[in-house]
Each structure stands twice: as structure tokens, then as C-alpha cells.
Amino acid sequence: MAGGAVVALVAAGVTFQSANASDSTEQFTVKSLSAPAAGTLALSLTTDLGADGAGAYYDADTKALVVNVVSEDAAQTVREAGGKARIVENTLAELTGARQTLADRASIPGTSWATDPVTNKLVVTADRTVKGAELTKLQDVVKGLGAKAELKRSAGEFKPFIAGGDAIHSGGGRCSLGFNVVKDGAPHFITAGHCGQSGSEWSDSAGGAAIGTMVDSQFPGNDFALVKYNGDTAHPSEVNLYNGSAQAITKAGDATVGMQVQRSGSTTRVHDGEVTALDATVNYGNGDVVEGLIQTTVCAEPGDSGGSLFSGDTAVGLTSGGSGDCSSGGETFFQPVTEALSTFGAEIG
């Protein structure tokens, strides 16, 4: 069975400018990198820069890694490594403090927040359900954070996308298969945690015979689940592209802001786009708060939950939820695949 997908990311041609940031005019050789290579360099520089680093993102147009720093010494380190240094105002510690303030004072259903390395701010988004006294409270908290945060509105409503790539069914509900994996030498697949509970049985057709049993499910906090295949169901490591072909998946990797990605789902088929933020928190309401998500500007609709987010042959995420649809667009959030694999002790295969 090919891996499903659920929600993609869209938004090419980002303008990498901000009022509180400046690019160095000194001449250094900036390496031309693929998105995965940029992500690897970003991780290395994060360690080297320590408190002087303030996030990074991938400029798909120039194929360069842009790294935010708060000192000239740190900028020199970035340039020597082949990245493009940008001196910014807000440190990661300050932005982390802003996140905590928001979580403590204004964690309101229908809101999300994520650190945006492009603007060097905490971007807070309120969906259409946030209004009245709650909206006023949110506005006051964001205003109090000054230049460290900004508030945006979403025309949609944040919610998990229930009911995607190849469809999977359980008890009348439908989600998407994310990626086929191997755990303890046995075939499994991963999907969204909000799709079902441990012990639930899953089939590849409505009312069909079970092909697997969910052995672990984590939601809220995280949003991933593991299903163990029964019998001899085919389980190739690939994603259905809905054009008669499939994308082979050979490994898992971490997302990078600016990374171009694709997603496939049984409801809205294949869409592509761009990663806009990492480590996002979203409050779906009813106490369902999920942290550490990949944020994108991609469309998704019910039937896409749990499906695969990928970049070439690299598995990146599992669709969690968001707002909007594939007519009007919206925000969509994905559970990082690497975290799910680490938690389950599984690997792509």
C-alpha cells in the first residue's frame, strides 16, 4: 500500500526582508544547497552559534541557507560555513520567553503560535472563532510583547482533519496512511494520533477486512500513531502521486523553513508548497493542544489526516490539522516524522 498524504504546503517566492533585520554587505561565498543539505548545515550552526543564533531558513530562489544572528562574530561563523548571515534584533531566548508568556496568559482555543525566522518574530494566528473578550485578551498580550510578536487572523477554523494518500478506515471514520515503516523487523505504518485509539482495527476500504491494528496512539501533545500490519498486506515504501505513479521514500528528515514539499491525500490528491515555521503550537479546542508541529501554507480538507508530507524521497511529516480548504487555502500543521519514528523505535521501510 502506498503511503498517503494529507496536507501540503504552499507559498513560493517569499520575500526575505524585515524591518528589524539587516544583511551584511561583505563578500563571502554562499554555498548553493539543496533543502536537506541546508537543514543539515542549520543544525550544525545551531550548535556552533549557541545563544548568538536566532533561527534559520532556506531561500529556495537562491538555494542558500539564511541564518539569523545577534552578533558580528556569529555572522562571521555563518559566512565561513557557507551560509548567509543576517543580523537581527530578537534573540531566540527572547522569542522563547514570548512563547511562554503567550502560553501562560493567552492559550485560547482557535489560536496557534510559532517562531518565524523570516520576520524574527513570534507569529500568533487567531482563527475565525476567536472573538469578543478572548480576542481582546489575545490582542493585549501580543501588544505587550512589542516587536517580538505579531497577530494575524485566519478566515478558517483550526481543527484536526478527520477522515487521505491511500485511505484507511476504522469504525466508520477515515484517515490517511502516512508512511510504511519497520519496527522490530515487522511491517507497520504511521498516521495521525487523533485518528484513533490503541487497539482499533484498520482496513483499506470502508467495511473491509482489517489489515492492521493500532498499537500506539498519542494525542494531544503529539499527534502520531503506529499500526501493525496483519497478514501479508503489501507495504511498499512509497507515496501515491495519483497520476499512475508513486514517489519512493528512502529516508526520513527534518523540515527547514523555506523547504519545498509535497503532500498526497485521498480527498484532495497531490499538492505542493512550502514550510513556513517549525515548532508550532496549535490549540484545537476542547483541551487538544499539540506542540512541536511543522506549519505550512497549504490546503487540506477532511479525509486528509495522517497522510504524508514529503520532499523528494524524504519523509517529513504527518498531517495533523489546520484551517481552510483547497479552494480558499489556509494554514496546515504537520507532526514531524522524525519524532514519531524516534518515539516508536521504527524506521522508514
Cα end-to-end separation: 12 Å
Question: Strand-residue fraction?
Answer: 35-45%
State the order of secondary-structure elements, H for helix, E for strand.
Answer: EHEEHEHEEHEEEEEEEEEEEEEEEEEEHE
Shape: globular
Question: What portion of residues is helical?
Answer: 10-25%
Q: Whole-number radius of gyration?
A: 20 Å
Poorly predicted tracts of residues: 2-25
For the largest beta-sheet, the strand count, sense and barrel status come to: 6 strands, antiparallel, barrel
Strand line-up of the largest beta sheet = 19-20-21-24-23-22
* Count, helices: 5
In a nutshell, what does this entry contain?
This protein is of the alpha+beta class. It contains five helices and 25 strands.
Features:
single chain, 349 residues, alpha+beta, six-stranded antiparallel barrel, globular
Describe the fold and architecture.
The protein is an alpha+beta fold and 349 residues long. 17% of the residues lie in helices and 38% in strands. The chain is built from 5 helices and 25 strands. It has helices at residues 35-49, 72-81, 92-105, 132-144, 337-344; strands spanning 21-23, 53-59, 64-69, 84-88, 111-116, 121-126, 149-153, 159-160, 167-170, 173-176, 179-183, 186-191, 201-202, 212-218, 224-229, 238-240, 246-248, 251-252, 260-265, 269-283, 289-296, 308-311, 314-322, 332-336, 347-348. The strands form 5 sheets. A 6-stranded antiparallel barrel has the order 19-20-21-24-23-22. Strands 13-14-15-12-11-25 form a 6-stranded antiparallel β-sheet, with helices on one face. It has a 4-stranded mixed β-sheet with strand order 1-4-3-2, covered by helices on one side. Helix 2 (72-81) links the parallel strand 3 and strand 4 (84-88). Helix 1 packs antiparallel against helix 2 (72-81). It is globular and about 60 Å long. 53% of the residues are buried. The model is unreliable at 2-25 (pLDDT under 50).
